[in-house]
């Protein structure tokens, strides 16, 4: 069985768990580093990246999630989770996890468009996905190995680098769980890629 945890320090957790379960995975909230044990994949939810980053440092998640990633286990960052995964954040000295090779801008849509919804075509998913953007970040620059999966108004809003997946929007706030299913497939593939012991 596929087990995908949702980091539960702050932000939208139960909605992710529901979507992951609909996508056929087993899911649980992750509040301590010990709960990373035995997980095949991890979701870092939206919320406030400064708060999530601070709590990750406080509870020892930074090193442990870096190890989780180094072991090839997939991570999906949504909204604030995208910011937390980036190697570089505009206007900020230090990244949080610094795992995915990209520069991101926080709250990049400005005041008039603090939150909105749109039907977003995503590479690898047949029909557009209903995307809810809330004080969303944008991906400004990407490294050579990052593949852009969705663009909104010419700006990068969904991307993948190997076992890392990110979206600017909140895929967990609608009934459409196809991006979670896409991630669950990534997790499934990463497991079959494991050396047999
Ligand atoms: N604006 C938030 C931040 O900068 C992200 C918003 C969200 O996760 N919905 O962290």
UniProtKB/TrEMBL annotation:
Entry annotated with the keyword Hydrolase? yes
- Where does the chain bind L-glutamine? 47-49, 106, 134-135
- Organism of provenance: Saccharibacillus brassicae
The active site consists of 79 (nucleophile), 170 (charge relay system), 172 (charge relay system)
Q: Does the keyword Lyase apply?
A: yes
Q: Write out the function statement from the record.
A: Catalyzes the hydrolysis of glutamine to glutamate and ammonia as part of the biosynthesis of pyridoxal 5'-phosphate. The resulting ammonia molecule is channeled to the active site of PdxS.
Q: Name one Pfam family in it.
A: SNO
List its EC numbers: 4.3.3.6, 3.5.1.2
Supply the alphabetized keyword list: Glutamine amidotransferase, Hydrolase, Lyase, Pyridoxal phosphate
Return the protein name: Pyridoxal 5'-phosphate synthase subunit PdxT
Molecular function as annotated in GO? glutaminase activity; pyridoxal 5'-phosphate synthase (glutamine hydrolysing) activity
Query: Subunit notes for this chain?
Result: In the presence of PdxS, forms a dodecamer of heterodimers. Only shows activity in the heterodimer.
Q: What does the sequence similarity comment in the record state about its family?
A: Belongs to the glutaminase PdxT/SNO family.
* Highest taxon listed in the record's lineage: Bacteria
| Catalyzed reactions per annotation | aldehydo-D-ribose 5-phosphate + D-glyceraldehyde 3-phosphate + L-glutamine = pyridoxal 5'-phosphate + L-glutamate + phosphate + 3 H2O + H(+); L-glutamine + H2O = L-glutamate + NH4(+)
Q: Under which pathway is this protein filed?
A: Cofactor biosynthesis; pyridoxal 5'-phosphate biosynthesis
Annotated GO biological processes are: L-glutamine catabolic process; pyridoxal phosphate biosynthetic process; pyridoxine metabolic process
